[in-house]
Amino acid sequence: MSAKRTGLWRWAPIAPATALLLLFLAGPIGYCVWIAFTNTQLTGASGSDFVGLDNFRRAFADDNFRNAVRLTLVFTFISAVIGQNTLGLALAGLMRAASRPVRTVTGTLVITAWVLPEIVAAFLLYTFFRREGTLNALLDWLHLPGQNWLFTLPILAVSFANVWRGTAFSMLIYSAALAEIPRDITEAAEVDGASGPRRVWHITLPMIRRSIGTNLMLNTLSTLSVFGLIWAMTRGGPGNRSQTLPVFMYDQAFLKSLIGYGTAVALLLLLVGSLFSIVYLRLMKVEV
Amino acid sequence: MRPTAPLILITAVTALAAGTLTACGGGSGGDRDTVKVVYNRSTDNKIRFKDAHLEAAKKQFEKDHPGKKIKLIPVQAPDNDYATKAQQMMRSPKTAPDLVYEDTFRINSDIKAGYLKSLDGYLPEWDQWSQFVDTAKAAAKAEDGKTYGIPDGTDTRGLWFNKAIFAEAGLPADWQPRNWAEILQAARTVKRKVPGAIPLNVYTGKGPGEAAVMQGFEMLLYGTGADPLYDPSAKKWVSAGKGFQDSLDFVRTVYAEKLGPDVTDALDPNVGTRVATEWFPEGKLAISLDGSWMGQNWINKGPKEWPEWSKELAQTPMPTQNGQAPGKVSMSGGWAWSVPQKAKNPDLAFDFVKTLQTKENATRWCVVAAQIAVRKDVAADPGYLKSMPGIDFFTGLVQYTHYRPALPVYPQVSTAIGEAMEKVTTGDASAADAAKAYNDQLRTIADGAVVSK
């Protein structure tokens, strides 16, 4: 059997999968890219004329788009980079030192928040933050002034919701990473007189560098595309004070019927995601 | 290769082929005997009069047409989301219904998109069409002169107020404000003398959507001068001028002075349900700028039984801005039954419209839905005229009423107005800034075909 034929034969088992991927994944993606360069609308003047870069020009001149980009960065930074990531690492570290029952209870609670369907979590947090909600009831009980969180600090409320919901994932990644650190290295450092914080900074963090990179990347990408949580809690409001890119996209494509423009914004969102990924890859030297 | 692998592969391929070839989950797939009817179900689980009415018509139709079936497909969602869902269904022959309930303000947009089928072929043979008044016939007529929908009722709008709160505030029981200033004055009096009551509800913002734009904003705007939104002689949209800003400023004043509901409640998509089922029946709301259909929330099998409503509430016309002629203003809309372009059974679908529009059914619909009749025979029906206290008042507003510009881009204009309202309601922008942002959007929407007044 010639080498060439073996090469072809080796493709055979994955041919059906490849065909399916091309049909159901690459096809729609290609169609989306095409739509982004047309003026397709859901209703009204129909027709999909090619308009070149008009949609993208329009986006960069659109105050609402700029506002959405800013809010997306704030939301991603607060809830993914800072919130989920640090809290996940802290929980993982603390749980290593905790007794088994404490570990079990904490782990169960955190993971429960994560496995809840997004819409259920969104309604839970909506009832927590709303004016007659749990948070204000608690504050009232402590004789602290409550306020209408979803109205005064909508982007912080949804960021908190995303932290609450997504921390489990980081915690699991870091638990696994910390378990990989050989005991003798930490012990050696201890014998040499390194204090707790120094041990974390000089030994633990460098040793789990790759996990940090991977985790940051996955968190960022999943947070960039959060839609249901925000939609159910605030609908991007009040005004456009919590209108991140996915919500803005939905608003343009389905509420204003501008499918072409909405899709162009989707491509730009993809671009933002890729930029983040490239930065992480460079900084952390993550091996994908 | 594991011995089971080929088996898995074959199963997967078979399942895939079965799914794609039979349009699994794709809807009717061409059932010749079933009419698929898409309509909007209220988001309030206690409001089911439309469902009940359609169920009754379905039974009647299936009895008269043996072997034929009606499949009712309710979409339970706020109006904006319902429209989006219906448009998406109509895009593909696999999912297109045979009959769809359309808000007449969107109908031109959907006609332009090619979603709907002209009904001109059916109308000449239909003896009931002559009973419809001309304005109603025009409601679903497109720029091409063809008719694309059969309207089943209309509505008017005015001010509803609670007599007990008014008495407590020392305001007259036969209140008749002559201009906007007197409305605000009454609201301020209520705020001062009846603490705890919401003085004045004006729908606003993106959440309530068209309800806010039409019941809130346009009821103000159309009281500021002629053709404030679209100039039919120039065939151009009118950019935001003084009247537009004054209307926004009225909304801003209501919320800035805390004369309205709490801003979060006001911006909630379900605020209309709360006005009808909580605030008015519980005596918490003094005045609401609202629609003629309010009564159906409180009568037979409505979401909130409230037999005393007609004694506790009164209605008065909405005045123009400074009382200028004709002194009163109202807006009218309505819904229509349309057949999608890609419907499988258009003829059968129109037969179902005929069932819905027998005189008895049309009258019953106007009564249960508290609609203002669009048919001459229904309007003269004693049962209809006695069906609801206040129906004569709201029918009397028809002479002052305005219709929204029936143009394909109106829904987009409406969305832009909703955003402007939301900005002034939250205090994020002044009326002038919000109007400026609206003008920028309007130029894009109307492709620059804009005129200033």
TrEMBL record, chain B:
It comes from the Bacteria. It holds the Pfam family SBP_bac_1. Gene3D superfamilies: Periplasmic binding protein-like II. Residues 1-17 form the signal peptide. Keywords: Signal. The keyword Transport does not apply. InterPro entries: Bact_solute-bd_prot1 (IPR050490), SBP (IPR006059). PANTHER family: ARABINOSE-BINDING PROTEIN-RELATED, BLR3389 PROTEIN. This is Sugar ABC transporter substrate-binding protein. It comes from Streptomyces lunaelactis.
